[in-house]
From TrEMBL:
Residues 197-214 have a biased composition (Basic and acidic residues). The keyword Oxidoreductase applies. This is SDR family oxidoreductase. It comes from Qipengyuania citrea. Belongs to the short-chain dehydrogenases/reductases (SDR) family. The keyword Oxidoreductase applies. Residues 185-214 are annotated as: Disordered.
Length: 251
């Protein structure tokens, strides 16, 4: 049985990835700061095949402590896939002149620093596997911007660069790719108290050549593809319903 580790596993895209891979008969390890969300997942999945740990993966000590428990749980087995999915979901920082350094750092640490720390700790476990991969959760905002999203965009752009650097350095034993989600509706995949099912406008759906808003399941399927795609590494895969290739004019 193969094993996947997902950061930011409590809600949204991370939760969907965890459930998708467990449905494929993988063992699942999930890390998140949201203890309440992880408790729901523990109740939903068997303890023998799922491990959920509360940890702030942007902090070195927290990552080290979590991986001690991961190592014990694996009991010598390999880690086959790591998904660096953690991050601050809200990209909007407000005007640049009002952006405090500590807030900038929070965005960077939650996504980019966390990916570095988790990948570094996971390497010995990944190297046990015959076929190992890493998927970094970037964003279409790594290559195109909305106003006042400086720190989020910089963190995701850094993840893109980290992806190709890791691919060159860790290959061929470990392949490394990034996914750039576009507009993904995560409401149905939140913990119980925050769950929602928004009714999107026709104009929102029409922005996408695919004809709809993205779903977390779309991202989970892309992670599965990238793990199996043995000749794909160092790539950045847009999963955005075609939104980034459609010209939109103001009328």
């Amino acid at each position: 049985m193969r094993t996947i580790l997902i950061t930011g596993a409590g809600n949204g895209i991370g939760r969907a990835i965890a459930m998708h891979f467990h449905g494929l008969d993988w063992r699942v390890i999930g890390l998140d700061r949201d203890a309440e969300a992880l408790a729901e997942l523990r109740d939903a999945l068997p303890r023998e095949t799922a491990l959920f740990l509360t940890a702030d993966v942007g902090r070195e000590g927290a990552v080290a402590g979590a991986f001690e428990r991961v190592e014990d749980w694996l009991d010598g087995d390999p880690l086959d896939c790591v998904v660096n999915n953690s991050g601050i979901a809200d990209p909007y920082a407000g005007p640049l002149e009002k952006l405090a350094l500590k807030d900038w750092q929070a965005w960077v640490d939650a996504s980019l620093t966390a990916a570095f720390l988790v990948t570094r700790s996971a390497l010995p476990l990944l190297r046990r596997a015959q076929t190992a991969s890493i998927v970094n959760m970037s964003s279409t905002r790594a290559v195109m911007s909305e106003p006042d999203t400086f720190a989020y965009a910089a963190a995701k752009g850094g993840l893109d660069a980290l992806t190709h650097s890791l691919a060159v350095s860790l290959g061929p034993a470990i392949r490394v790719n990034a996914i750039r989600p576009g507009w993904i509706e995560t409401g149905p995949w939140q913990k119980t108290g925050q769950r929602s099912n928004p009714d999107h406008r026709a104009r929102d759906r029409d922005q996408h050549p695919a004809g709809r808003i993205g779903r977390p399941e779309d991202i989970a399927q892309a992670v599965a593809y990238l793990h199996e795609a043995g000749f794909v590494t160092g790539q950045h895969l847009n999963i955005d319903g075609g939104m980034t290739v459609k010209m939109i004019y103001e009328h």
